[in-house]
From TrEMBL:
Domain Nudix hydrolase residues, every copy: 62-193
Organism annotation: Bradyrhizobium australiense
SUPFAM superfamilies, per the entry: Nudix
Molecular-function GO term, any one: metal ion binding
The protein's name in its UniProt record: CoA pyrophosphatase
Coiled-coil stretches noted in the UniProt entry, renumbered to this chain: none
Endoplasmic reticulum in keyword set: no
Top-level lineage group: Bacteria
Keyword field: Hydrolase, Magnesium, Manganese, Metal-binding
């Protein structure tokens, strides 16, 4: 792994009212066809990642998934994240959003994200105001992840399903949306150099798809 670098795309901070106003204006619930179509490759803006996703799409079946980006509407908003259980077969111990694969019984990706949030951490739907889908995000494991940005009313109680996650915690939105905290690292995929984001916060190492999706949120809401 190389030394962290900082991407030089910056935007002025915005307050919570402006953040939610922008998300409502810029996001919607149109489901992108690339969620299930292997011939539509999600674009990442990184040549190495784009090449990797092309290879993965040829070799693996598409695995549609949905996650919830729960922005808790405190005076200073936070994002509710989870730490996956260490015994899981994939991404064990990593920091993630509530979410998982889309089941045939789910009415929509939104429904899948809400179901998974309730199953994993006991976040009840009555506390959640869905706002819209963020851009489709592809991974090296064949997942096509459709994130739902949501405003979450404070006052909820969580019940952790330790078979899936071992912890749930909040990180200030201002920290996650500050580009000074967006490190870029590089690794190889079959001889192809590809980049990934990391956003270390205290003892938490937020990286990979979670950090990548947060970066997309920053670019859509703060830079667009």
């Amino acid at each position: 792994m190389n030394e962290p670098m900082l991407k030089k795309m910056e935007a002025a901070p915005i307050n919570s009212t402006e953040f939610f106003a922008r998300t409502k204006t810029r996001l919607n619930f149109d489901v992108p066809p690339g969620l299930v179509d292997p011939n539509i490759i999600p674009k990442t803006g990184d040549a190495g990642n784009d090449r990797m996703l092309e290879i993965v799409a040829r070799e693996q079946p598409v695995r549609p998934a949905a996650v919830l980006i729960p922005v808790v509407n405190h005076r200073e908003p936070t994002v509710l994240l989870t730490q996956r259980s260490p015994h899981l077969s994939s991404h064990a111990g990593q920091i993630s959003f509530p979410g998982g694969k889309i089941d045939a019984t789910d009415a929509s990706p939104l429904d899948a994200a809400l179901r998974e949030a309730e199953e994993e951490i006991g976040l009840k739907r009555e506390f959640i105001e869905p706002i819209g889908y963020l851009d489709l995000y592809g991974t090296a494991f064949g997942f096509r992840i459709l994130p739902t940005v949501a405003r979450v009313k404070p006052g909820f109680d969580l019940t952790i399903n330790e078979g899936e996650v071992v912890d749930a915690f909040e990180v200030p939105l201002a920290f996650l949306m500050n580009p000074e905290n967006h490190q870029i690292h590089a690794k190889e995929f079959r001889g192809i150099e590809r980049s990934f984001y990391a956003m270390p916060f205290a003892e938490r190492y937020i990286w990979g798809a979670t950090a990548g999706i947060l970066r997309v949120l920053y670019e859509r809401i703060y830079l667009a």
